[in-house]
Specification:
The chain is mostly helical. The protein contains 21 helices and no strands.
Length: 402
């Protein structure tokens, strides 16, 4: 388009020279001369105007040219302010989301992710997400994840949560399989270490008991008693030992919910655990596994959404499509979450846009804006050439006829 616009201007210059030479040979040539002359003026004026936006015409530092490079920082701030005022205010986000059924859209995608344009959209979004995740510094990103997770865990009062979970498990009898598994584990552990226990009993008896063999009978009696106790606990749901353990668990659940001293002990234990270097290493490993899994899923979304996981997502999508109450809950949660993000992080997002544009060098910013506007810039030059020629014809007609 740039070549075409420049070629049109050159054509007008050639027509001007030809018409000037031939203007006395035929009445039409003065009209063509006027048209080409005015077209050159219009084309050159619009060339100057378009060029002055992005650079100095012919490299000459004429005042008020190269407007975009010279005002790069001001444009960055204006762009950031425009995004903030028109896209990232809580009121705008809430109004836009109120008219959208995000839950239904998510249900459509999850129930049939490979459908038409959505499949292409998913492939493109997955590729973009993978490239973005790959470009981030793993150590820095891992540090941010750990810091954010640690901050949330420090704020979380887990004692009441643990108490409520434990109380609910006891009320629904979900603790019974765990208790029986622990009893069986205790029996197996005792069986595996029977020789060690016998040796401890033998070592703690006197010489007379060892000489008479009573130590062996004592060891057998102790072990048989423990085996019998464990077997009775498994067989009898109302065994006193089981009841005692259940009473202890119920008391612990109540203390976790209501006892301030227990809250303090649990919080201290939580902070000690968070400050443990082993916890930091575990979080690092967890983040790296998560990051690797996300990259694999993003590089191959079809495989990530296949199998049992894909079937589960399809069931979730179907539920989101047909259950209006679930849609209401999901949409309300999404709306509150995104409005909260706009409220808390809107200024940071805007600052990121502004700082990114300010870091661009002038030529980069000029090329990107010029490329974004594209062909229309050259249509300005073409229109200027043609409109200028037509205005020249109108003036010549008025001068000739009047």
């Amino acid at each position: 388009m740039r070549i075409f616009a420049t070629g049109l201007l050159v054509a007008m210059a050639v027509l001007f020279l030809v018409a000037r030479t031939m203007q006395h040979s035929h009445p039409v040539w003065p009209w063509l001369l006027t048209f080409s002359e005015a077209a050159m003026v219009g084309g050159l004026a619009d060339w100057f105007a378009v060029t002055a936006l992005f650079r100095h015409p012919l490299g000459i530092p004429i005042p008020h040219t190269a407007i975009i490079p010279e005002n790069k920082d001001r444009i960055a701030d204006s762009m950031a302010g425009f995004i903030r005022d028109n896209f990232l205010t809580p009121q705008v986000v809430a109004r836009r989301l109120k008219a959208m059924n995000l839950a239904s859209a998510a249900g459509d995608f999850l129930s049939d992710p490979a459908r038409g344009g959505e499949g292409r959209l998913r492939q493109g979004a997955a590729s973009l997400f993978a490239d973005m995740l790959q470009s981030l510094d793993p150590e820095q990103m891992g540090g941010m994840v750990k810091k954010g997770l640690r901050s949330q865990l420090e704020k979380l009062d887990i004692s009441p949560l643990l108490g409520q979970l434990l109380g609910a498990a006891i009320a629904d009898k979900r603790h019974l399989p765990l208790m029986e598994s622990m009893i069986r584990w205790g029996g197996l552990t005792l069986e595996d270490n029977e020789d060690l226990l016998r040796s401890m009993i033998h070592d703690r008896t006197n010489a007379i008991m060892r000489w008479t063999g009573l130590d062996e009978r004592l060891a057998n009696a102790v072990l048989d008693g423990i085996y019998k106790l464990l077997a009775e606990c498994i067989v009898d749901p109302q065994h006193p030992l089981r009841r005692k353990v259940e009473e202890g668990l119920e008391s612990l659940a109540v203390s976790l919910v209501d006892d301030p001293a227990m809250h303090d002990r649990v919080n201290r234990l939580k902070l000690e655990l968070l400050n443990n270097p082993a916890m930091g290493a575990w979080l690092d490993a967890m983040w790296e596994r998560t990051r690797t899994s996300l990259l694999a899923a993003a590089r191959n979304p079809d495989a990530a959404l296949s199998g049992q996981f894909g079937a589960s997502l399809a069931e979730l999508g179907a539920a989101l499509k047909r259950d209006e109450r679930l849609q209401l809950l999901v949409n309300r949660f999404a709306r509150r979450t995104l409005v909260g993000i706009a409220t808390r992080y809107g200024a940071q997002i805007v600052r990121l846009v502004s700082e990114t544009v300010k870091r661009w060098d002038a030529s980069t910013m000029t090329d990107r804006i010029e490329g974004a506007v594209g062909r229309d810039l050259q249509f300005i030059r073409i229109n200027g050439t043609l409109v200028g020629g037509l205005v020249g014809l109108a003036i010549h007609a008025a001068d000739t006829l009047l």
